Amino acid sequence: MARKDYQRKLDELRSDVVSMSDLVLDRYNRALTTMETKDEPMAQSVIEGDEDVNQLYLDLESDCIELFALQQPVAGDLRFIASTFKIITDLERIGDFATNLAGYAIEAEQNRYSEIDISYIGTEAGAMVGDAMAAYADADADRAREIAARDDRIDRLCEEAGEAVMQDLIETQYNDNIEAVVEDASRLLLTVRDLERVSDHAVNICARTVYMAEHDDELIY
What we know:
mainly alpha; Methane Monooxygenase Hydroxylase, Chain G, domain 1; 8 helices; 84% helix
C-alpha cells in the first residue's frame, strides 16, 4: 500500500473513532436525561442502541487488526493504532454504562436522594470523556494531562454521594419500608459507581493519548 493510501486509512480510523465517541456520548447524555425525566421510551431507545455501539466497536477493532497485520506499523503509527485499539474498548464500556443508567431510570419509582446531584456528577464525567476525545483527535498530550487531573474531583463527589447513602441507611427507622429503601440505596450506589467508572475511562483515554503523542506511559495503570 502506498504511503498516501496508508495515511488516509490512519486518518479515517481517527475520524471513525471520534464518530464512535459522538454516538456513545449521545446515548450517555440521553441516559442522564432519562434519570431526571423518567422518560421510559427514551430510556428504552438508549438500551436498544447498545447494539449499534457494539457493532461499531467490532468494526473498528477489525480495522486496527488489519492495519497491524498488513502494514506492520512502527514508531508513531504503531503507538497511534495501539492506543486507538485501547480507546475503542473504553468507549464501548462507556456505552455499556449508558445502558446501565437507562435501566436504572426505568426501575426507579422515586428519588429518595434528591439532595445528591447525580445529574451534575454525570455531566462532569461525560464532559471529561468529550474533552479527552478532543485531546485524542488533536494528539494533545498536555491537554490530556489536564483533563485526567479532573478525575480526583469526580472521585470526591462520588465518595460523598456514597457516604450520604450509607448514612441514610444507618438512620433509617425499622418501621420505614426497608425493602424499598434498600432498593433505592442500591440503585443509587450502582449509579454512582458507574459514573465514577465513566470518568476512569476518560482518564484511560487521556493516558493513551499521552502515550500516543509522546511515547510516555506516565498515566497508564
